[in-house]
Amino acid sequence: MPHNGTIPENAPLSVLLFYAAMENGQSLSNYAQSINVGAISLRQFISGTSQRPRQRTLELIGEALDMPVEEVRWRMQLAPTAAPNFGEWLQAKMEGRFSRAKLTRATKISDGALRNYLHNQTLPDADQARRLAEVLGVPAYEMASVIIANTVQQHGGALAPARPATEERPAAVPAPATAELAAALPGSNHAPLPGAPTVPSLTPTAVGASDELRLLDLWRQLHPQARRATLNYIAMLLAER
Fold first, then answer.
1. What pLDDT is recorded for position 210?
2. For position 221, what pLDDT does the model report?
3. How far apart are CA 1 and CA 24, in angstroms?
4. N or C of the chain: less Cβ packing under 10 Å?
5. What is the dihedral sign for C-alpha 142, 44, 38, 10?
6. In this structure, what DSSP letter does residue 168 have?
7. What pTM value is reported for the model?
8. Model confidence at 205, in pLDDT bands (50, 70, 90)?
9. Please, where are the H alpha helices in the chain?
């Protein structure tokens, strides 16, 4: 899936799959059928409850999203960002613009379904989410992110903390701390991970001290979930050697 300005580089797989179904105007069941993945398997990926997916399933998802299997595995470990309850979020988007009756007419979603959304009893499927996003003028990825955050929370999954609008740049890290990162991120011949700084090697013979500090600073700027996922992914690669 090509990325644009509305999709962050560290987008979780769960959100990307729901977003892809939205972009195709399909329900999750129909989207699963179109990419030759079982509907139950797809919903497990989206809810963050998939445990040991088959290699072929990962390959099919990678083909659908135009990304290598390694990136699919990496994005599986990224938690969606925390979001408000969908009903409250939807009500805020309707405020002063749409009554429930008016939104029903504009989206062709039943009044009963909208009532359930607003009361946090159910969540929209991908095709309904697309209609809501188009009528409300909400970016599709934002709609997908809020729905998936609510979905994962309902299934007892972990969410990444919402990032503040402005973040302070991390303070410079003392040189001795680079040894810890060097131990955690050993050099390898594998392709760099999406969203992670290119790290050919963190040994003094490969880069200077100033370069080490810059690489460490870049790594620390990643979202905490992305940092943990990076280390977990590298540990998995090392275990396969």
1. 58
2. 63
3. 12
4. C
5. positive
6. P
7. 0.68
8. very low
9. 13-23, 28-34, 39-47, 55-65, 69-76, 86-94, 100-107, 111-118, 126-136, 140-154, 177-184, 209-221, 224-240
